[in-house]
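Session log. Operator J.P. requested a structure for one protein chain; no other inputs attached. Running the standard single-chain path with token output.
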Amino acid sequence: MLEITCPFCGPRSETEYINGGPSKVNRAESPDGFTDSEWVDYLILAPNPLGPVKEEWCHIMGCSLWFTITRDTVTHEILPSPETSNE
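Structure written below.
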């Protein structure tokens, strides 16, 4: 189980949060040129990269704050980032 640090409430179990998905998902640059197959890929197929990914999380069982963390999708380690760092 992950331990996620809320910037307001501090470290808490992942059961207190909801994952909002990857941060800043790219939008289609020229949607008029998409085929039906390309639209299906764009709308339904989510990228699932290996390694560090910025994700949006909401502390629903606490302060309800949305924040960004960087999580390694291979190890599930939460990595330091400007959004979560206290430096």
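Operator note: The longest helix spans residues 36-44.
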